[in-house]
């Protein structure tokens, strides 16, 4: 029986679970096929206590999970051996081209950082891989560089919507927008 990602998220204490934002149903829906794959690399910007990277490492035991955070001093959740942590500012993070199957931005949520993730991180996504942004409500908040018309990141995302819709653009295979969650899949 497939382990419910949401149950794991509750167990590890990430706010991605149904006790918080409720994203894990969507992650399970779109990413469960990766559990059968070898050589998968998942990177998450924003580690905090380490709850979510521990969850990814457990749910995807054959994957390599990389957690990136500007400050790793809050990490307290024990992590499986397939989880590696890097202390770095995502704004200057350089990932090799086509090196990551799933990149999740759960970092600062600042509009300038989310905008940078949408542009700078795309080349690092492997064909068929995913670029995922969480907590989109921040893009409507002044403290994150947004407003009630959205933010520069909202405008950047709108360009991705066009790319997903236009037949002449063959770079984006799928784009899913759920409450506070944007998931963009690169063409295989
Ligand atoms: C919402 S928490 C991450 C929660 C975690 N992903 C989870 O689900 O359990 C956000 C994290 O982003 C980190 N962060 C903020 N700005 C950052 C930056 N510029 N680069 C990397 N990490 C950053 C913070 O230090 C904080 O630990």
**Rg calc:** 16 Å
State the share of residues found in helices, binned by percent: 25-40%
Overall mean pLDDT score?
95
How far apart are the first and last residues' alpha carbons, in Å?
A: 28 Å
The outline comes out as: globular
Molecular structure report:
The protein has 188 residues and is α/β, with parallel strands linked by helices. The chain has one domain (36-186): Rossmann fold. It is 26% helix and 23% strand. It has helices at residues 5-12, 24-31, 51-59, 111-120, 152-165, and strands spanning 41-45, 64-69, 83-87, 100-105, 125-133, 172-178, 181-186. It has a seven-stranded mixed beta sheet. A hairpin with a 2-residue loop joins strand 6 and strand 7 (181-186). Helix 1 (5-12) packs antiparallel against helix 3 (51-59) and helix 4 (111-120) packs parallel to helix 5. The longest helix is centred in the C-terminal third of the chain and has 14 residues, at 152-165. The protein is globular and about 40 Å long. The two termini are 28 Å apart. The mean pLDDT is 95. S-adenosylmethionine binds next to strand 1, helix 3 and strand 2. S-adenosylmethionine is lined by residues 14-16, 44-48, 51-52, 68-71, 89-91, 106-108, 113.
